[in-house]
Design a protein that fits this description.
Layout: H1 2-17, H2 21-45, E1 49-52, E2 55-58, H3 60-86, H4 90-105, H5 108-131, H6 134-144, H7 150-160, H8 171-195, H9 203-238
Antiparallel strand pairs: 1-2
Helix pairs in contact: 2-3, 2-5, 2-8, 3-4, 3-8, 5-8, 6-7
């Protein structure tokens, strides 16, 4: 009987300790999937290599590691903000707002990287369609024709820019991608905030919380009564 009770107590403690594991696993999976876009965009747009102490290091690697780390930091900070918000201590609850703001700020770089990759993907699709279209053949011929009208040749050269290798996203494609990725990670962070399960109060914590509430209520009542008595005394003095 005693062993069964101990096993049940251990299981209860384990359930309390892992109460937020599902929300962390799910939101972590979403964050890492978004990071696949970001990492792909980093390696596609940053081919630079630096030489450090005789070792050639592609700059895309530290950039990608930084982006993944900041995404995970943002997720952890969102969980910390939710825990602070649910904490019965006032000083911890006051810190929740600052923690949440920091969680949003650290996502600026990962959001940009992922949005840039998504926008570049769309640009490559448009580029492929253009290269296999009759417009590409016509623009190539017009740009190379010295007898063609000057404005037509200039327009053809402008159109042929779309056939060049895509190394970064332009603003036209980047803006909607930024909005989409920011909304996705924002909802992911909100899921952590709203789905957070606070640690159950122990009997001692509940007793202390109720005692503090009664003490605060009594203090407020005394202050109101004192203020009311002062007002009555002032009224009698003036009368």
């Amino acid at each position: 009987m005693t062993k069964n009770m101990l096993s049940s107590a251990k299981l209860n403690k384990l359930a309390v300790a892992l109460r937020n594991l599902p929300i962390f696993l799910l939101t972590g999976a979403v964050s890492l999937c978004v990071e696949v876009f970001g990492t792909g965009g980093i390696f596609a747009s940053n081919p630079e290599i630096v030489n450090v102490a005789g070792v050639r290091i592609p700059l895309a690697w530290p950039e990608a590691i930084m982006s993944v780390s900041m995404t995970l930091i943002g997720l952890v900070l969102a969980g910390a903000a939710a825990a602070q918000k649910a904490d019965p201590r006032k000083d911890e609850r006051r810190r929740a707002g600052g923690t949440q703001v920091l969680a949003i700020l650290v996502l600026i770089a990962p959001v940009f990287y992922a949005a840039n990759a998504l926008a570049m993907s769309h640009m490559r699709e448009e580029q492929g369609a253009y290269l296999h279209s009759a417009s590409y053949s016509a623009d190539t011929a017009t740009a190379a024709d010295p007898m063609a009208d000057h404005e037509d040749r200039a327009q053809a050269r402008t159109n042929l820019i779309k056939a060049q290798r895509v190394t970064h996203a332009d603003l036209e494609h980047l803006a909607p991608a930024l909005l989409w990725i920011a909304s996705l990670l924002g909802c992911n962070m909100l899921a952590v905030r709203l789905g957070w399960r606070a640690k159950p109060e122990t009997p001692a914590q509940e007793k202390a919380r109720l005692l503090a509430a009664r003490t605060e209520k009594a203090r407020n009542t005394r202050e109101r009564n004192k203020l009311s008595g002062d007002n009555v005394a002032e009224f009698k003095r003036r009368a």
